[in-house]
Amino acid sequence: QVQLTESGGGLVQPGGSLRLSCAASGRTLLSYYVVGWFRQAPGKERELVGAISWSDGNTYLIDSVKGRFVIYKDDAKNTVNLQMYSLTDRDTTVYSCAVKPRGAPRDSYSNWGRGTLVTVSS
Question: What is the dihedral of CA 55, 66, 64, 101, to 10 degrees?
Answer without folding.
Answer: 0
